[in-house]
Design brief:
197 residues; alpha+beta; six-stranded antiparallel β-sheet; 7 helices; 8 strands; 32% helix
């Protein structure tokens, strides 16, 4: 399914608005949070106790709260990263934070990433088979570059909300990004410039 996520995004737009997918996303979270008018990542994490984990696993999707250690020198950072971790290091991990891309580019990157999936079960055994070398070696992954971030364990401010593979597409289009230091429009503009689109 090489264009699954892009096609899904285009269908939502052709039906009149990208908010069609947003509404589906809000409905998905309605069982986990009482505030569906404005999805708050903090509330989602706190109310999703059954899906909270103390660590991340490579190739699976997670949402969590984060406070960047170098926030005073960073132009901006995301307080609620939505990531696919791809490498663990002694004091943390590297991940692809999908929030750094506008929705259409998220869909394009997800289509490329979906080609690396290890099985079609869409359960806890399902994960992406990714590494920096894999991402950097193929043009189809070119949208990943502005999304690669390093996260320090001591700066993580919540447990990790595991996103079931059945819900990746929903979480992908949720407006959960909370950038500190810039608007999402500015972040997305910078990301587009970095990847040349």
């Amino acid at each position: 399914m090489p264009n699954y996520f892009v096609d899904m995004f285009n269908q939502a737009v052709s039906r009149g608005m990208e908010t069609a997918k947003m509404e589906t996303a809000r409905n998905w979270f309605s069982t986990q949070t009482t505030n569906v008018r404005r999805v708050e990542p903090r509330t989602v994490i706190q109310k999703s106790r059954n899906d909270l984990m103390s660590t991340v696993f490579i190739g699976q999707m997670f949402l969590f709260m984060y406070d960047a250690k170098t926030k005073d020198t960073l132009l901006y950072f995301d307080r609620f990263p939505l990531i696919f971790p791809f490498r663990k290091v002694q004091d943390g991990f590297y991940g692809i934070n999908m929030h750094y891309l506008p929705y259409m580019l998220r869909a394009k990157l997800m289509d490329a990433l979906y080609d690396t999936i290890n099985n079609d079960k869409k359960d806890q055994t399902t994960r992406l088979r990714i590494s920096y070398n894999i991402l950097n070696s193929a043009a189809r992954f070119r949208y990943f570059e502005p999304c690669v971030k390093r996260y320090l364990n001591i700066q993580v401010q919540s447990r990790f909300l595991y996103v079931d593979p059945n819900q990746w597409e929903t979480a992908l289009f949720l407006p959960l990004e909370r950038f500190v230091g810039a608007t999402k429009a500015q972040v997305w503009k910078d990301s587009r410039k970095k990847i040349g689109v």
